[in-house]
Amino acid sequence: MTQPTLIRRGRDGMGPLPEPLPAALALAAAGVPVLPLRRGKVPFGNCPTCAGNTCGGRPNMKTPGPCDCPGVCHAWAAATTDPAVIVSPPWAAAWRQAVCVAYHPGAAGLTVVDLDNADAIAWAHTALPTTRTVPTTRGEHWIYRGTMTSHNAVRPGVDIKSSMSYARYLGPGTGHMVDLPDAVRALAAKKPSPVRPVPHVATAPAGIGFGECPHRTPAYLERGIAMAVQRITEARSAVHATVYRTFLAVLSTHGRCGCLTEAHVTRLFTVAQTKGETLRHCTDAWTNARTTLGL
């Protein structure tokens, strides 16, 4: 990864941090897709045209599309290396409000092991090969060359950010970057994370009153997902509660017959993240809703 000039002191006492726009341009020039993060260190919300993902989403979101919106929409899927896009008028307003730069590790061929506290760092020193290390607010990012599926909470204080995820850019770090080791991949294989972009949706076993899918047409499911997306998009307060109640409603109707696909759940998670929810909050809400319904 490149090394943008450090000219701004972080609010969290970490020392100098990169000025957002110059850092973004430097990273993009090095082939690292970037996006701005607003207050709360979350992506900017979708523009009116993309609200509720009605545009179909960016091509790399694996949803029907493509989306031709020039704005900073669809969270991690907005990340780009195109300098013309980065300095365009729709993005310029976002950079003026941005608190930091984020990047899409998977699209850059990278995996970030996010160590959130001192105990996690101590574990990494004993379990993982040394690589490029970047200090964070509470812990460290260990950056490896190679990609995998993103997983959160693979062990206490440890998240894996790679494909379909974003990580804050906090400076170039120190140390030599090495290839993604099997030890990191094994974390996800050994304990599939309950916090991931597309959680598993269990189908109820036969014999408990469900059996065949009761939804006669795909349009019924599509209308339900569209209504759920709209409900989250229009939330002006109590976003946490709205996301949970919406997930609960979707799962109560569609969670037992197995008709939900990864694309449907990704749409729900993406719109929740554009409202400021973190990936962890999204999956906690999803897991809690499944638990409530006994799925």
Which terms would index this structure?
295 residues; alpha+beta; 4-stranded antiparallel β-sheet; 11 strands; 35% helix; globular
Distance between the termini: 43 Å
Question: Which regions contain 5 or more consecutive residues with pLDDT less than 50?
Answer: 5-14, 191-211
User: What's the total number of strands?
Assistant: 11
What's the story with the biggest beta sheet? 5 strands, antiparallel
Please state the average pLDDT score.
80
Helices, by number, come to 9
Which quaternary structure do these chains form?
single chain
Roughly how much helix do the residues carry, as a percent range?
25-40%
- The H/E string reads EEHEEHHEEHEEEEEHHHHH
C-alpha geometry: globular
Report on this structure.
By secondary structure, the protein is of the alpha+beta class. Helices cover 35% and strands 16% of the residues. The chain has helices at 20-29, 83-86, 89-97, 118-127, 182-190, 218-233, 239-254, 262-274, 279-293; strands at residues 6-9, 16-18, 34-38, 42-43, 100-103, 110-115, 132-135, 140-145, 151-155, 158-161, 167-169. The strands form three sheets. Strands 7-8-6-10-9 form a five-stranded antiparallel sheet. It has a four-stranded antiparallel sheet with strand order 4-3-5-11. Strands 1-2 form a two-stranded antiparallel ribbon. β3 (34-38) and β4 form a beta hairpin. α6 (218-233) packs antiparallel against α7 (239-254) and α6 (218-233) packs parallel to α8. The N and C termini lie far apart (43 Å). Mean pLDDT is 80; it is low at 5-14 and 191-211.
